[in-house]
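Need tokens for this chain, all 875 residues.
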Amino acid sequence: MLVRRVRSLSALVVLSMAAFISGTGAQAQRLPDGVVPEHYTLALTPDLKAATFTGTESIGIRVEKPTNTITLNSLEIKIQEVTVEQACQGCQNGNGLKLTGTVAYDESKEQATFTFPDKLRAGHAVLHLKYTGILNDKLRGFYLSKTPTRNYAVTQFESTDARRAYPSWDEPALKATYDLSLTVDAGDSVIANTPVLTDVPAGEGTHTITFTTTPKMSTYLLAFLVGDFKCISGGADGVPIRVCATPDKVQYGKLALATAEHTLHFYNNYFGIKYPMPKLDMIGLPDFEAGAMENFGAITYRETDLLLDEEHASIPQKKRVAVVVTHEMAHQWFGDMVTMQWWDNLWLNEGFATWMETKAANDFNPAWKYKQDEAGDLDNSLNTDSQATTRTIRAKADTPAEINEEFDGIAYGKAGAVIGMVEHYVGEETFRQGVHNYLQAHMYGNATAEDFWNAQTAVSHKPIDKIMESFVTQPGVPLLTFGPESKTAKKTVTVAQSRFFLSPTFEGNRNQKWTIPVCFKTVKGDSCELVSSASGTLVVPNAPFLYANADAKGYYRSAYTKEQQKAIAAHAESNLSPTERLGLVGDVWSLMRSGQGSVGVYMDLTSGLRNESEVQVQESVLSKLSAVQDRIASKQDSARLKAWIVATYAPVYAKLPPAGGTADQQQLRGLLFGVLGAAGDAGVLAEARRLTSKYVDDPNSVDANIAGSAIQLAAAHGDEALYEKLLALSKSASNPDVQTTALLSLARFNDPKLLTRTLDYATSGAVKNQDSWILISLPLRRAETKDQTWEYVRTHWPAVKAQLTTSSGAGLVSSTGAFCTAEKRDEVKSFFTANPVPAAARAQKKTIDTINSCIELHTAQEQNLKVWLDHNAAQ
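Here are the structure tokens for all 875 residues:
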């Protein structure tokens, strides 16, 4: 499932999405041993008008020891009948058992226990159930999705919500096969994991659709989607591929289809194992909270992550669709065919898919430079993992709430980055062979972290097990501190490792040790050595300067001597690759934050990179410059800094072609337009108003690469008339991107009355709850609106809380990390302690860390910024 931060230059949302959970109980909720499912025969009849469904279920089970009780997972389901049958092989009269059971529910554990009057023998049996359930409005389980014209019934089961649709052994290792059928209205169709086997009338205006048997798979990967979906079709390597959506939006699926066709062939070759299902469907759902979900053979998506108008979409929007498709398709092998044994190894699924997505997407369109996105994401992961509150990649996850908290930047970003570091160390082909061997050995089964890294160790003959174990079982980020290079014929350099924290005052353990592949940049390639002790000496290859993170693949921060740092800066533009320049920017910024440098050094680097032509590098530079503005500058210096930004970047913007150009130029135009407008450039602000007026009349009349920035700027200075136009567009647009852009622009208005109107709208129930919380979180993150929004949240908490699903609460809590005073920190801590948000305990701790870090940063660097501006900004 893709839930990580949207990486987009002009996107209106740059937020982390958490994943889905099923509860907040504190006790372990594992099922007892003794009974194992082997095959489910499941028949469902949903009533889309009444928002209910009925189900009958026969489960082939293996009883491992005699018992008169069976416990499985069930939640929000009323089981009306339960019987069990067991043949008696070898009995003289041939009679077997047929027992009727009673049902007892344990809602705290999300379990149901069936008790029978006699014991079942060890061996095979069949459990029969009849039950009813609800099509809920929680975006999980079997739930209602709505458009203005009709209802749909769709599923989202990861991680622990299959139990809301059918009683089951809802744990990833308890795999089984499925025979599925649904009885639906005559005008509706059903999309599920496998192809349709039969479709026959069922009487009274209904028909029953039955699907072919699935392969052995985990409960959370089952999917069934009911409605009037329409599809466009294609295929690759003999596998039919469809993109499906509501009838008014299916025409926007062409890019996703082309991506999937290319990617299926690419993955067949990469994994050396053919796509394991007979077809692939990708379905855009009107209501869906995550980015996408990798159901085996039937991937579901938020509409904006699958559907777009390719002719008029921005490059970041196109990149987003392509990379979400490649991420979810990677899961078909790595996660679906081979699944982690338990949720504490979720990173095996999500970290691998996060790493793999850019490899496949870059192969689909190299001009989009996903490898640079990967380097930017690595920088973000290092910063996340350098906070006081973090976790190990493999962490305790016994309850649904704990499982939910696994779906974070560590499971996706850090795990993916560590996998990338290992691939860079052993070589692409060796690593690919290790992946193939791992998948081949565990096909249609479950595996552990040790299975994965032992496969890589065996094929590479390098200590990958030691490297991976040191990063998977320890929290945090290594800091490698290099000493001067020796002057001997065989040049060497000393290196010491310690744990790196962004906070200079945090008193955590800094004496951790990792086994780290350190790769030096050379003229002809990379030279890698291992660091495993607290300090040591490394051989340095011949090179014009020392740079110890070739291709920016290492999961560590680097601190150099002043002489080494000066040499790196001198060669940055000519000798460092774009990904390495991204790594350099990240190191300089993070070391400053940790107290090992001045903000002036970062500002000098920013100034030196003002003409940077690679958009991802410039985006990284400018995002940190925005943090200088928001978190370091005083009110007086803020105005001077804005003036410096305009003076520095307006000439760069002016040199870009006014339309067209390379992919980088198109994206840079949108990026710099937004930066200059935020800094108060009068010409840019006037152009933003003009472009927004055109966009409202005809969204296709404005270059999408600049439209998002223009609308944000116009809204920030906008009046009620503009507000009304954007509100109307959010309701009338059929294009998912236009609809979302217009809706979320309502959160950009600075006018206090219009901000209140947006917050009232968000809590009114009129906005889909996949989006309503974002209308609250966005103004919580903005300096101009965060105080008023926070006051609204506190005084309207019941209404705000009612909009939160079990995946968006942590996002709302994290948004309060935009504050930067002790007073607000204490308010945030006190409020969420008194009003706890489910599955947001770690998010609350990290939010307090973030505010404390901001307070420290402001205190330490405000005067340094003033001094730098005194020497560099116009007075």
